[in-house]
C-alpha cells in the first residue's frame, strides 16, 4: 500500500514538528521545511524514522516568494528520488513568526514582513504546489485564536490570520472539483518559543491564559499536532471550508 506524504512548512520545531511526529505515527511520510535550524530539522528526520516513516527536509525562507519556483522543483525531484511518487497528499502551511506591537506603533516594515510570511507565502506557495498535490488531497492553513478574540498588540498579526481564513474558504471552493479539502486550524495560546516564548516562560501570561481557558491550562504543541493529524485522518474527508479552533475553550 502506498504511504501518504505530508508537506509541512516550518517542521523543524514547535507546532510543525508536533504535526510531523503525529502524522508519522499514523503512517504518513514527511517532507518538511526549515528556515535556518538544520540540526533541528535533521533531528526531526531521525524521530520520524524511529516511528517507521520516511522524512526529508528542505531549506525554505517563506518570506522570499522569488524562491518558490526553485523550491517546487526540489519537491518534485524529492518525491521521485526518495518516495518514488509524483504527488504528495497533504499540505500544512504552518511556517510563521510572532509579532507583538500595538496598532499605533506597528511599522510598515513589520506589517510587510507579516504579509510576506503569513499571507503571501500560503497564497503563492500553495498555488505553485498545486500540480504536485494529489487529487483528493488536503490542505490545512494555520490561523490563530486571535482572529476570533482580540488582545492588544496583535492587530497586524491577527489581520493576516483573518485573511487566511477567508482565503481558505475560497481555496476550498475552487479546489473542490479536484476533491481537495481546505480548512483552517486556529490554535489558541500554546507553550512554545513562538513570539519569544511568553506563553511558555512568563508565569503571569501563562496564568492569564489558563484562567481564561475552559480546560484550565495553556495549550501544548501536542494538542495542535494531534488536531492536525485528526483533520487529516480518513474520517475527516467531508470537512472543508471550515475554521476549526483548537484552544481548549479560550475566551468562550
UniProtKB/TrEMBL annotation:
Coiled coil: none annotated. Pfam families: adh_short_C2. The keyword Oxidoreductase applies. Signal peptide: none annotated. InterPro entries: NAD(P)-bd_dom_sf, SDR, SDR_fam. The keyword Protein transport does not apply. One of its GO terms (molecular function) is oxidoreductase activity. Keywords: NADP, Oxidoreductase. Belongs to the short-chain dehydrogenases/reductases (SDR) family. PANTHER family: 3-OXOACYL-(ACYL-CARRIER-PROTEIN) REDUCTASE, 3-OXOACYL-[ACYL-CARRIER-PROTEIN] REDUCTASE FABG. This is Short-chain dehydrogenase.
Amino acid at each position: 500500500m502506498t504511504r501518504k506524504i505530508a508537506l509541512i512548512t516550518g517542521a523543524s520545531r514547535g507546532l510543525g514538528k508536533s504535526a510531523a511526529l503525529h502524522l508519522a505515527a499514523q503512517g504518513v511520510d514527511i517532507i518538511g521545511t526549515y528556515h535556518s535550524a538544520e540540526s533541528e530539522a535533521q533531528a526531526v528526520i531521525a524521530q520520524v524514522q524511529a516511528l517507521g516513516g520516511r522524512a526529508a527536509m528542505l531549506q525554505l525562507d517563506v518570506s522570499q516568494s522569488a524562491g518558490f519556483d526553485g523550491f517546487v522543483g526540489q519537491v518534485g525531484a524529492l518525491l521521485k528520488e526518495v518516495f518514488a511518487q509524483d504527488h504528495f497528499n497533504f499540505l500544512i502551511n504552518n511556517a510563521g513568526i510572532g509579532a507583538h506591537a500595538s496598532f499605533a506603533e506597528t511599522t510598515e516594515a513589520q506589517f510587510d514582513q507579516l504579509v510576506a510570511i503569513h499571507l503571501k507565502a500560503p497564497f503563492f506557495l500553495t498555488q505553485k504546489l498545486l500540480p504536485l498535490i494529489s487529487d483528493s488531497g488536503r490542505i490545512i492553513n494555520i490561523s490563530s485564536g486571535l482572529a476570533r478574540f482580540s488582545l492588544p498588540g496583535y492587530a497586524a498579526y491577527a489581520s493576516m490570520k483573518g485573511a487566511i481564513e477567508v482565503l481558505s474558504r475560497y481555496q476550498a471552493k475552487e479546489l473542490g472539483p479536484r476533491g481537495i479539502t481546505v480548512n483552517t486550524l486556529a490554535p489558541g495560546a500554546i507553550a512554545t518559543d513562538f513570539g519569544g516564548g511568553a506563553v511558555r516562560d512568563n508565569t503571569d501570561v501563562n496564568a492569564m491564559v489558563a484562567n481564561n481557558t475552559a480546560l484550565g491550562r495553556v495549550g501544548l504543541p501536542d494538542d495542535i499536532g494531534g488536531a492536525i493529524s485528526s483533520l487529516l485522518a480518513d474520517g475527516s474527508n467531508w470537512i472543508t471550508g471550515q475554521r476549526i479552533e483548537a484552544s481548549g475553550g479560550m475566551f468562550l
